[in-house]
Amino acid sequence: MTFGQIISANRKKHGLSQKDLAQLVVKEDGSPISPQYLNDIERDRRNAPPEYLIGRLAAVLQLDPDYLYYLAGQIPEDLRAGGHSQEKVQEAFVAFRRALDNRQV
């Protein structure tokens, strides 16, 4: 499933309209996102939202934010800002691939 499909399915699971969910997901300035913006996200007409809004969507819809980051093709800030060595990053991706599909790398 895509990022938008997961958001849509979980919004419906929680019995929320797009307007309801949009009111609950507030931007960093405290204003809610627009229902049209949410509609575009759910229909995959936009790229995934910024990290802050991914966190807000995860909180409101009771989803693991790491799964949403994965679907969005993003790496959370706490993993980006670490000064990790190339070897350590490669090792982590090999382990990640193995955990997802048991490929031998």
Percent in strands? under 5%
Output the CATH topology of the largest domain.
Answer: 434 Repressor (Amino-terminal Domain)
Distance between the termini: 25 Å
The CATH homologous superfamily of the largest domain is named: lambda repressor-like DNA-binding domains
CATH architecture of the largest domain: Orthogonal Bundle
Helical amount among residues, as a percent range? Answer: 55-70%
Q: From the helix content, strand content and strand pairing, which structural class follows?
A: mainly alpha
Structure description:
The chain folds into 2 domains: 3-74, Orthogonal Bundle (434 Repressor (Amino-terminal Domain)); 79-105, no CATH class. By secondary structure, the protein is mostly helical. The longest helix is centred in the C-terminal third of the chain and has 16 residues, at 86-101. Helices cover 62% and strands 0% of the residues. The mean pLDDT is 93. Helix 2 (18-24) packs across helix 3. The two termini are 25 Å apart. It has helices at 3-13, 18-24, 35-42, 51-61, 65-72, 77-80, 86-101.
